[in-house]
């Protein structure tokens, strides 16, 4: 199925169907028909299943010419799936699991949760390929070409590579399934691709297990359970796909259903479900190809319709960690945070000024998001008990929006790529809707007086908005800007939450205007540019709840996805005239496609009631214990001397035996003036720097060591010549990272060598490091 090996003709593909939990291909040739299904059991009402990192590859084959055929299948998975960069080394081997044939592959370093940032891939844990023992002809690890060519020649190699470490792009895990007799009756074989990531998220310095591992499961347990459940899950996924596709079609037509199916797995996949200390589910989403932030409010806000549709457990799972942080003494501002850190480290906000300053924050945006989402959760539950856990904070945010929300100051909103904007009419609509949402929460909380007070404010603001934002046949981008317009997607919650703040003619007026000005591939975000956001168009399309309006705005988006020349996962930011992607790849915000489903209360209730997990009793946010310093950093001492050079040294520069007499000496830290958080004592402004120094350790200091590192940007650090840690991107403060087992083994009582290479590309730059003992 494809161009490799070149000498083997490919089967002819006949069809492709993308469904919420399955992607199905059909092929025909040489007297057989093959249905190839990739099935991920992402059933939303059971987080035990939803969190399983397993995909089934299913082969259904039958004869089409009334003859009997012999058919065999080969499948392989590249070592690239287990590393961040192709040159990283991997280790591999066969696994003994009862009833299964299995092999695994993973990075040699196994630097668990060491790296963080945007464009990075998981490089700890292990990729597994497994299948029922009775159907496996051979399973092995080998060189990609040799494995495929061996299969073509009737058998993949018997001998595994051995124990030698190899670059990830030079290794595959492959399965050759046993040849089978194929007749006119369908015959089925299947296998599994899985990933065990050991720990998934660092939350306030505490490493959290993936949710599926919360009761002590290991990879073998995951694979055995997934094999046992195959038949039942196959049927359950088929039933779920059929029901959801029918409901999507009923809500918005066939094109809408296909769009929902395309978005479904991407939304869930662009984040991770982990277990807190009480075994309850937490979900952390990632800003893929945006800025790498974790649990960003203006990312989970647009993704929320998909989570809300399937019950309050899913919605609470991403709200809890965010609200626990906002409710902690660490967050000192009168408005909501933006994020929890940089993926996969949820250790505190990094966007804008972080916890240090209000500069470049999104006060109205984020406060409005949370008030709206908590009201939506209360609507599912039929009570405000969940919101009551954070009630004083919600009151504070509502007071902030009452004072600042109607006519926002010059600040960012979720569309921050478009820059700061004062008097933002759409942002004002969010604030007004959020005030109405808070009034709804107050009513459910039993504070009817406060409910009346905030509803009155919201209604007065809505009436003012309808007058002051109006410009002829549409509503403006900003209150003080004529000849402008923008999508008013934030208004969807007025009807979904039953707030009844804005008159229907407001929505009708803007919708008629949108239909006149949209481009071939969609409605622009506003009058400033021709680019758009896919999620916001699908929200805007729902405003009037007129099917003709919805389909009119949906059709160009559907055309974009079928026309765009960019071959990449579903983007949400693209050009409406050229169908080219502007940026943002594979983000969870596409869950916003499901907003239309929330208008039908009967359908929403049906899916929400399927919630099997029914989580409760979430643990409080972990309180991070500081590590015990062993080797100080520039933060603790201004007398740390390093040897350094900015000229590329010999390849053995990191070894203890290397002669660095010609290098310069300087005090740490090293960097450029003005770099956030840096203690600059030796200026470094070139592209690269190499550092070395000797540190003395006693026997008692050799236990439980971790790295304390502040880097801007990419670094690699060696202990006694052995690679101990590396990461791409940058930090704005000292962070903790694990050290490789191989490097820790080199440490001894007495003198030890620490050596660092740091590479800089743009912006500020800084490097400094020390060692500490990890807190228990």
Account of the 3D structure:
By secondary structure, this protein is an alpha+beta fold. It folds into three domains: 12-235, Beta-galactosidase, Chain A, domain 5 (Distorted Sandwich); 236-608, Alpha/alpha barrel (Glycosyltransferase); 628-773, Galactose-binding domain-like (Jelly Rolls), CATH 2.60.120.260. 29% of the residues lie in helices and 25% in strands. The chain has 18 helices and 38 strands. Strands 1-2-3-4-14-9-8-7-11 form a nine-stranded antiparallel beta sheet. Strands 27, 30, 31, 33, 36 and 38 form a six-stranded mixed beta sheet that branches. The mean pLDDT is 95.
What key phrases describe this protein's structure?
single chain, 776 residues, alpha+beta, Beta-galactosidase, Chain A, domain 5, Glycosyltransferase, Jelly Rolls, 3 domains, nine-stranded antiparallel β-sheet, six-stranded mixed β-sheet, 18 helices
Helical content band: 25-40%
CA-to-CA gap between the ends?
Answer: 51 Å
Give the CA-based shape: globular
Strand-pairing-aware structural class:
alpha+beta
How much strand content do the residues show? 25-35%
> Over the alpha carbons, how many angstroms does the gyration radius reach?
28 Å
CATH fold topology of the largest domain: Glycosyltransferase
Number of strands: 38
Query: What's the total helix number?
Result: 18
Give the strand order, joined by hyphens, for the main sheet: 1-2-3-4-14-9-8-7-11
What is the CATH-assigned architecture of the largest domain?
Alpha/alpha barrel
Main β-sheet description: 9 strands, antiparallel
Unreliable residue runs: none
Highest CATH level, the class of the largest domain: Mainly Alpha
Overall tally of structural domains: 3
- Mean pLDDT across the residues is 95
